[in-house]
Amino acid sequence: MLEKYIPKITQELKLQPRQVAATALLLEEGATVPFIARYRKERTGELDEVQIAAIRDRLEQLTELDKRRESIVSSLAERKLLSEELQAKIDGAETLTTLEDIYLPFRPKKRTKATIAKEKGLEPLAEILWQQDPATDVAAEAQSYAGREYEVDGTKATIADAAEALAGARDIMAERVNDDATARAKLRYLYIAKGVIKSKVAMDKEEEGAKFKDYFAWSEPAAAAPSHRILAIRRGEAEGFLYSRLMPDENEALATLENLFVKNKSAAAEQVKLAVQDCYKRLIGFAMEAEARIFYKKKADEEAIRVFAENLRELLLASPLGQKAMLAIDPGFRTGCKVVALDRQGKLLENEVVYPEKSTREQIEAAEVLHAMVKKHQIEAIAIGNGTASRETEAFVRKIKLPASIAIVMVNESGASIYSASEAAREEFPNHDLTVRGAVSIGRRLMDPLAELVKLDPKSIGVGQYQHDVDQYALKRSLDDVVVSCVNNVGVELNTASKHLLSYVSGLNSRTAASIVEHRNTNGPFKSRQELLKVSGLGPKAFEQAAGFLRIRDGAHPLDTSAVHPERYDLVDKIARDTGATVQDLLKDGTRRSKVDLKRYVTEEVGLPTLTDIMQELAKPGRDPRQQFEAFSFAEDVQTMEQLKPGLKLPGIVTNVTAFGAFVDIGVHQDGLVHISQLSDQFVKNAADVVKVGQKVQATVMEVDLPRKRIALSLKSKPDLSGVRKPGSDRKEGNARDVQKHSGPGNGGGGFGNGDWFTAAMNKKN
What we know:
By secondary structure, the chain is an alpha+beta fold. The chain is built from 30 helices and 17 strands.
């Protein structure tokens, strides 16, 4: 079944036929993308996860196209409308759009102006006019229909006059133009290539829709509009504040259609021309606008989803602190700081509430509680959530003279509150409230961001833009791919992983992950990977797909802690024997490994790519691909927006990367925006090429708007501070960075006048 798609995919993705064929077969057999990329390199010619996923997605798209093709053929055959010529056209359609264009004239229609005209018997007149013979006496032909009787649903009526006859004939011709595949293709191209998106404020919505002010009278070529701008306009329209159109020049559109259908300047041709104009304004114009809007919405979705996926990958692969005895603090003013003690595996040991921001007595009590917990649980690190009161809490913890060896780290708590209210959190901590669960999540996130973040819906993590506006299926598919890729790239400790983490392992799902945890709780820790086959519901296929990504520290086989798949244990044993050593010797002795001639072990199934991977694993078994953790601290003397001044340089952490720039946390409870024009001394087309989520940067304060809580930052080595407004100053028309000199929202230099502040605000809202 899949073989027929291989030539097309090969051409589209510029791959070898054998690569596509092998990947398609593996996918059909139930192999996962991570498994194919890691353990079937010889069969696929070393395709990576991105290429394999692209083949998978294209196979699905082509399969859906064929299903639609079969449905159309079946419909036509049932109605006895299928000819050999039509069948050939349908078989040759390579896109869904082309297929639907071919089917459109034959699609069962509701009652239209054209069908009413046909009921009046005006189709012969329409056919005469359609021929556009200069000798045709249009008036006489039309007059011959005046007074004719017709019957519809048992009701008799009469065509009033020649004008009614001509109008009906034009309705029939207009529908013929609308159904013409060539006309639709040409006009579709015009709308997409030359369409202009225009938006204006809805009537009497100026004040209520002020956040969309930049789009109250907006116009730009759709092809040049960035994704966030298209999504912003669509959101404004969905919320009832904006009205938008996407159209090319009307004269060019009409000329395109008239050139196709109007043959000369005869009286009959004039009727065809009128029908073409009517078709454009009443039928095909709206249809093509709808298609163009869908096209650009999909394009904007793809860009937004791509940015979200890149950000999520960086966040999931953030450096883990590792297994440390931990105090985790969820800061608060009025309700106090929730403090939990966690052991090295993240198990909750104790929880308290302290009030370091109240009276002196309560500050002393808070210090005593923290000192006692540190001593009792031999704490090695302290994690502090970066929400409300975070800087004040951090300052308090640093001044109470805890042992210098204890790392104090600010942790991004985005999504922690969502986790704390989730079913997973309630299941694990049924006897603790939301605040305790949230603090536990903050601590665990410092230990291992990946293991903790997989418990959240990726959309709630807050590293995307317009995630609620894009195609939700496509978003989920992309984000799930990222999570699966990250989990399997890092590997999962079988005896400590939660069922949520296990469910993302290749070959496993929520059911088999729960079975693994249940088996572990009942029978104790797994001693070898082979014991997985004893888990209820986990068969040989799931074992094949999952085993290589699961790790067992101090397992029965020395390779159980590595990424070497159990199917290659015998091969490694043979290599060890041939060198006169054991597998343990190979793991410890780099000199012995360097003497192995890998070419001796190449077979039809195992090639140099796999052998090379094996030797790399023997050098560093179970190595974590994530970077080593480095502690970060905000500037101690700057904790509020009021302390910010233009030109001030501050350390910060990138919290989100968007199409128009990046958000940076500089420790003042409000992220600043680095516009894309301020990311680098060089021209930047894609923000993700310069900065990543979690990256530590040095940012220069450019502008501060206290009333609106907005901060403009720059990452340039020598940012231009001339003309920036001072904190609290009024912005007037033409002041500093005059918004009129920008080509539009999002194209400015990072000042508050450009429309990306709207996008930024909406993004933070998400």
